């Protein structure tokens, strides 16, 4: 489906932002990101000593959210011994909360029409070099057939530009189309069981509809929390220029009954120290005001994008060393949260990130519109938002993770059996979620190995699976037989079983 990219009905843009759905959350007319206060906290910190760092790490290890003052101390740490201890603590926290599971998903880009003009994005309205397109329902079906029937994904993140052609009705219709696809596999069938959505901020009324459409997690990244930089990169007059409409997107989502929300920063737009602090403020504020913190935190790093000077030459580009530190700091500051690293990063960086506490990543990634089902030349700049750093297949990733002793989880049980939001947060904090999910991870891993794995991957995967089974047997000898019956049913070809 194509449409002239510059056709934007004014009535549509004029009515999108509901001022009362921003103002109700403000305190004394202020939002919760006070730029000068954040900088003051960063600058006030003296040289940290090891004792002070260890005290803070104790809190993280007890799965307590750090204070901004604590985080400012950790940001300042340069001493290799202290950094080493921080890294060890991060890994312990990840294992305590999420065990050795890595959840995988695939992004599915629905269209690249966009009314906004974000300086760093290839989809921006004024980028005349972008080939515009939005997938029809038939095309979405074809994309899903490849993802579920050939690759074996069970969860996707559906990505939408902000435009009337991909408004809420289209989003809901596309979700329905995806959920309906069921593909035969070697021993059973494949389908998408969780759709997370990354789309522009919406009103509470639209968010209620999104929730009812079978949403998993709702993701909106603030991009930069720094007010002045935000204003510079999101030109006045565009919808996205409204900082507070975006900042309170997740407050509205929670008011609409969406418990799982994903926040994030596009690293490279402004000073990373400020952004990490602001992410923490966001998490603290959501929990204090709405009762639940973020289900996930994403930290995309800016990549080159078609016809974007800013993406190429930003003064705030983040080095690999700083990026690793950012991951570490988020894991320590918001210990309960899921953390997502994407194929924007190289294979090596993704491996490193796993050792720093990452819990989710994508695989077999294609971000061109229609590029899973259509022959292409690999990465195509005119139809994708930015360039990828790691285009390895899901099979290669599963193999790599298994070699590192990690189990790839395709579990999507959480939101379907009520373990979301506040409930899942309590489970995560108490370390219970890791145990529940271990069982479902094993069931879904077996399913994927039987249906999709190449022989070498199956071999190394089954070795990890055996180890997991042994752990489950030792930890829960009474429950093991029941669980084992489920596993046997999966081995015989039953699909989508969960506990
Ligand atoms: N249009 C919606 C929005 O902006 O919220 C959602 C879709 S947008 C395609 C998803 C995310 O891509 C953005 O939130 C931004 O963080 C990220 N992104 C944009 N340009 C990028 C670039 N050059 N490199 C890496 N990530 C980028
Ligand atoms: Fe549009 Fe999102 Fe890209 Fe901005 S980041 S131009 S809103 S697609």
List the keywords.
alpha/beta, eight-stranded parallel barrel, globular, binds S-adenosylmethionine, about 500 residues, binds iron/sulfur cluster, TIM Barrel, about 50% helix, two-stranded antiparallel ribbon, 2 domains
Describe the structure.
There is one protein chain. Helix 3 crosses helix 5, helix 6 crosses helix 20 and helix 13 packs parallel to helix 15. This protein has 22 helices and eleven strands. The two termini are 41 Å apart. Strands 1-2-5-6-7-8-9-10 form an eight-stranded parallel beta barrel, surrounded by seven helices. The mean pLDDT is 91. The chain is of the alpha/beta class and 499 residues long. The chain folds into two domains: 54 residues, no CATH class; 339 residues, Aldolase class I (TIM Barrel, Alpha-Beta Barrel). The protein binds S-adenosylmethionine (SAM) and iron/sulfur cluster (SF4). The site of iron/sulfur cluster has 9 residues, from loops.
């Amino acid at each position: 489906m194509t449409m002239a990219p510059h056709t934007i009905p004014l009535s549509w843009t004029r009515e999108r932002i509901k001022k009362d759905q921003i103002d109700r959350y403000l305190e004394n007319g202020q939002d919760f990101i006070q730029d000068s206060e954040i900088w003051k906290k960063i600058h006030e910190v003296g040289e940290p000593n090891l004792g002070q760092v260890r005290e803070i790490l104790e809190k993280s290890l007890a799965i307590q959210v750090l204070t901004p003052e604590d985080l400012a101390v950790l940001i300042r740490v340069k001493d290799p011994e202290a950094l080493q201890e921080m890294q060890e603590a991060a890994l312990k926290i990840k294992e305590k909360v999420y065990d050795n599971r890595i959840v995988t998903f695939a992004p599915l880009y629905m269209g690249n029409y966009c009314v906004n003009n974000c300086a760093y994005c290839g989809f921006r309205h004024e980028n005349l070099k972008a080939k515009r397109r939005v997938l029809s329902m038939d095309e979405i079906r074809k994309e899903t057939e490849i993802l579920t029937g050939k690759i074996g994904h069970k969860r996707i993140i559906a990505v939408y530009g902000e435009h009337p052609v991909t408004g809420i009705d289209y989003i809901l219709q596309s979700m329905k189309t995806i959920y309906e696809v069921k593909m035969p596999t070697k021993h059973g069938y494949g389908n998408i069981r969780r759709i997370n959505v990354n789309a522009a901020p919406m009103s509470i009324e639209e968010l209620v509809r999104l929730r009812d459409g079978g949403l998993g997690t709702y993701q909106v990244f603030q991009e930069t929390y720094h007010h002045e930089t935000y204003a510079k990169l999101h030109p006045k007059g565009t919808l996205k220029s409204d900082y507070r409409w975006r900042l309170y997107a997740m407050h509205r989502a929670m008011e609409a009954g969406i418990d799982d929300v994903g926040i994030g920063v596009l690293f490279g737009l402004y000073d990373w120290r400020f952004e990490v602090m602001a992410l923490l403020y966001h998490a603290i504020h959501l929990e204090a005001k709405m009762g639940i913190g973020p289900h996930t935190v994403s930290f995309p790093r800016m990549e080159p994008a078609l016809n974007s000077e800013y993406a190429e030459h930003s003064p705030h580009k983040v080095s690999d060393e700083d990026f690793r530190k950012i991951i570490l700091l988020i894991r320590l500051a918001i210990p309960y949260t899921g953390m997502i690293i994407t194929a924007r990063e190289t294979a090596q960086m993704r491996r490193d990130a796993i050792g720093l506490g990452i819990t989710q990543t994508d695989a077999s990634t294609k971000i061109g519109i229609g590029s899973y089902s259509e022959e292409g030349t690999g990465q195509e700049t005119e139809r994708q938002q930015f360039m990828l750093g790691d285009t390895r297949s899901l099979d290669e990733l599963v193999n790599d993770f298994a070699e590192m002793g990690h189990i790839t989880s395709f579990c999507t049980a959480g939101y379907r059996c009520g373990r979301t939001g506040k409930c899942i947060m309590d489970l995560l904090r108490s370390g219970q979620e890791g145990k529940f999910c271990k069982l479902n991870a094993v069931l879904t891993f077996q399913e994927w190995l039987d249906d999709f794995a190449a022989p070498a991957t199956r071999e190394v995967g089954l070795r990890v699976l055996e180890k997991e089974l042994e752990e489950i047997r030792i930890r829960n000898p009474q429950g093991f037989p029941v669980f084992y019956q489920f596993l046997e049913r999966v081995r015989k070809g039953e699909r989508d079983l969960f506990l």
